[in-house]
Amino acid sequence: xxxxxxxxxxxxxxxxxxxxxxxxxxxxxxxxxxxxxxxxxxxxxxxxxxxxxxxxxxxxxxxxxxxxxxxxxxxxxxxxxxxxxxxxxxxxxxxxxxxxxxxxxxxxxxxxxxxxxxxxxxxxxxxxxxxxxxxxxxxxxxxxxxxxxxxxxxxxxxxxxxxxxxxxxxxxxxxxxxxxxxxxxxxxxxxxxxxxxxxxxxxxxxxxxxxxxxxxxxxxxxxxxxxxxxxxxxxxxxxxxxxxxxxxxxxxxxxxxxxxxxxxxxxxxxxxxxxxxxxxxxxxxxxxxxxxxxxx
Amino acid sequence: xxxxxxxxxxxxxxxxxxxxxxxxxxxxxxxxxxxxxxxxxxxxxxxxxxxxxxxxxxxxxxxxxxxxxxxxxxxxxxxxxxxxxxxxxxxxxxxxxxxxxxxxxxxxxxxxxxxxxxxxxxxxxxxxxxxxxxxxxxxxxxxxxxxxxxxxxxxxxxxxxxxxxxxxxxxxxxxxxxxxxxxxxxxxxxxxxxxxxxxxxxxxxxxxxxxxxxxxxxxxxxxxxxxxxxxxxxxxxxxxxxxxxxxxxxxxxxxxxxxxxxxxxxxxxxxxxxx
Lengths: 296, 275
Description:
The complex is a heterodimer. By secondary structure, chain A is an alpha/beta fold.
């Protein structure tokens, strides 16, 4: 049995505003080698806080209060800024949510793609340019030279997301964090991008942590899932099992609320008030357990 | 089939001036029956939002007509359109930016009631507003609050209350649930479904999400690049689409089921290259 690619262990965080409201409640999850692991939840679930903690970009109003993020034998939370900088972009890369804001509008694609390849990968300017072209071909861009010479605004949203995927895989990272990578895209483009992320991941043997609010999307791309609610893990398991036989009432409620064109009458069910009450009670009970020993 | 309330024929809309302005709509025909919910679906650039705006007279078509309840309203000026404004309402995509943050929800809801002369006193207007809040499942105390104090779902309910408080015949909803969590989305859509039934409202529901449209609409209009590629009852269009584009849109919807072949099926390489 090989060691997992990423091990998040009892990660807790709180807001420094809102009277210290908990944001993550002892979240543990394991991303295996070569696995696409889905992190699913609604707004406020804490999924992007987890992604930010891994990337070392926790916002100033959030404080990590406990836990570890194990990667390549070290705890990412304890690395110095310099050590972390050496890991990010090289061993851990990000596919961001919004391809229109993730690229610098004033610089051509080639400049933006070759920066990382030169600075993090140690390639010469000429080699970096060649590599960038190869990467664009790999993400099925027909005319890499034209795209390299373009500014972001000259490309469609789907094309920009392809560029960002190419850049993310450019230095053969061990882990890619995909943060809602298709949320801003049309449904047909979304399908192409999902297919592309999966094929790049398989070809390079990369592990992917796939953050999404969309159970339909994670169903199609993830091997395993972690379902979050209010910063707490509700359920984890193989995608097929979680979706076919969800064990936690929250997962069931989330599935029932999803609109489905194949089940127009049974889907789209609002979460029953008793389920919401039970969830809140579960969170409150957890918080009481955590706070007491610390005070005592 | 219901009697037509809103009928558009040959709608052409171009933004900008002169022959150089490329049309956004290329001759669209659409009808919405009394009390009927019609979904308008399309990807970005399909012209669905422009179609909605043209139906409400918020943009002027360069050709074609819009007939509402038997009268041609295509070329009405501002003043002639005013009585129609109450009967044709809109619910906006972004409830936060469509609600004035400096006004209480009460003021936001009462002002249009007074403006349209639906009540002759503030007290009477307040009663109508209370009824509307009841209908959309918000407490009457909401009138004291500001939009920024409300959740996304509550704000969207206020948006719906602002439309239904005027007892309209026709409501246009443009991507009103696209920013909401699925559990909130389900609540808002169930509410909309109930209201259209209870109030016999005609609803044009613009969305990029075919699953949502299938759940709440009786008919669907599929648009692509400013043209209607297919329209018909949802049951028929989803079971047996006649347009390959509709087929492709349906096949691209990721259902929350495990289907290992889904990722590599459909959506041609040609489409991939132009994405």
